[in-house]
Fold this sequence. Notes:
alpha+beta; Alpha-Beta Plaits; cAMP-dependent Protein Kinase, Chain A; four-stranded antiparallel sheet; 10 helices; 48% helix; elongated; transferase; differentiation; hydrolase
Amino acid sequence: MQMLMPEPQIFVERTLALIKPDVVDKEEEIEDLILRSGFLIVQKRKLQLSPEQCSNFYADQYGKVFFPNLTAYMSSGPLVAMVLARHCAISYWKELLGPSNSIRARRTHPHSLRAIYGTDDLRNALHGSFSISSAEREIRFMFPEVILEPIPAGQRARDYLNLYVKPTLLAGLTALCKEKPADPMTWLADWLIEHNPNKPRLQHQVTEEKHQ
């Protein structure tokens, strides 16, 4: 009797990491430490936030005494934002960072990143998401185009294919048989791009016609 073994599953978590303005020059060195600690850098960008954007990012800290200094510090120069992925990414990244106060980190966690690169409680070199919900919010803030929803599997995947993929693909293959192009692969690829049901439709031509 054949035994059905469950498919192996790998649970990958994502967290946001920030290299703050005062240590951006250590970017390559810090990234090397991140990779050697078992993280995958899924996305990365260098940007400079305005004080208003910093206020929005740290909205949960609003009203605290250090809030004005925090937003001024975080908007003082470019920073590097990264999406890190691995098993239990949030807790492992927080462990690698060490305590938020770099002075205390040097006493209690001397090998942590904040102990090595940080200066004090405010200028602590790096940021990490506190929880899964904060990671999702912060990743969306820094990477608005990122897709965080889980990839469908099993019956959900079959339902998605039947509802959204197969009808368009069938229509494309039917048109391909009728057209019989010299390069069928390129023709079908162009056809699918042109007839993508999720493709945004521009309305300016209709508006211009109404004004004529």
